[in-house]
């Protein structure tokens, strides 16, 4: 008894295209041909094709199946490795579902981590401030994220300064100094209420240098020259105090 390519594909529950691809990559031996040139598959081909399909359905790649060879043995090591990989994938997907639930229930932004998203969504801030928060969330550690979240929950509104947010790029000296002094006072208040703000780089995954270099690049990109000058003055005022 011999089957055509279409018949063996139907028996195995796969497609003609898949059978032909298995031939091309060397997973399935080419069968003999009839006098009319049509392929004729036997039981050995069907058994091999069923094994390939079963392994593909389980999640093995074709290269992994090829590495197992043609022998119909029990690939215990490969099965255990795949089981561990699937377990890790399931765990990741479960975490993703939890995070999706938070995003849906709390209408949280998708570009911030779970620690900050729900909180930041309830706080009014400029686009520049929000984008800076997004950048910093990528370079600071868990402790810093917790500090940021606590600050946003309790004192974010107190720390806003419209004069800084809407400062013109060519603001004069008096305006810059006045805004800097006001902002420095607000910053000192934040440091008193949230001491962790003083060492946001303490557990930065890439190290303190990388965190502050990233912050510097973000500041230059997000704020105009007058605002950057004010931030520099604030830094010196607060550090001097």
TrEMBL record:
It holds the Pfam family MerR_1. This is MerR family transcriptional regulator. The keyword DNA-binding applies. The lineage of its organism: Bacteria, Bacillati, Actinomycetota, Actinomycetes, Pseudonocardiales. Gene3D superfamilies: 1.10.1660.10. CDD domains: HTH_MerR-like (cd00592). Residues 2-71 form the HTH merR-type domain. InterPro entries: DNA-bd_dom_put_sf (IPR009061), MerR-type_HTH_dom (IPR000551), MerR_fam (IPR047057). It comes from Saccharopolyspora ipomoeae. SMART domains: HTH_MERR (SM00422). The keyword Magnesium does not apply. Keywords: DNA-binding. It comes from the Bacteria.
């Amino acid at each position: 008894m011999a089957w055509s390519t279409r018949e063996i594909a139907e028996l195995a529950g796969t497609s003609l295209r898949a059978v032909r691809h298995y031939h091309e990559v060397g997973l399935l031996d080419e069968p003999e041909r009839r006098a009319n040139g049509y392929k004729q598959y036997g039981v050995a081909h069907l058994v091999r094709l069923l094994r390939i399909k079963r392994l593909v359905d389980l999640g093995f790649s074709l290269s992994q199946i090829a590495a197992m060879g043609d022998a119909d043995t029990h690939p215990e090591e490969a099965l255990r490795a795949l089981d561990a990989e699937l377990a890790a994938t399931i765990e990741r997907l479960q975490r993703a579902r939890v995070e999706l639930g938070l995003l849906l229930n709390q209408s949280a932004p998708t570009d911030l981590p779970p620690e900050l998203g729900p909180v930041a969504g309830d706080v009014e801030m400029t686009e520049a401030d929000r984008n800076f928060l997004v950048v910093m969330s990528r370079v600071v550690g868990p402790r810093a994220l917790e500090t940021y979240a606590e600050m946003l929950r309790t004192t974010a509104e107190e720390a806003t300064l419209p004069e800084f947010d809407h400062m013109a790029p060519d603001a004069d000296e008096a305006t810059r100094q006045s805004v800097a002094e006001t902002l420095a006072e607000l910053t000192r208040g934040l440091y008193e209420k949230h001491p962790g703000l003083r060492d946001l780089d303490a557990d930065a995954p890439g190290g303190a240098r990388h965190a502050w270099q990233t912050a510097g690049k973000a500041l230059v990109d997000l704020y105009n020259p007058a605002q950057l000058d004010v931030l520099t003055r604030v830094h010196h005022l607060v550090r001097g105090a």
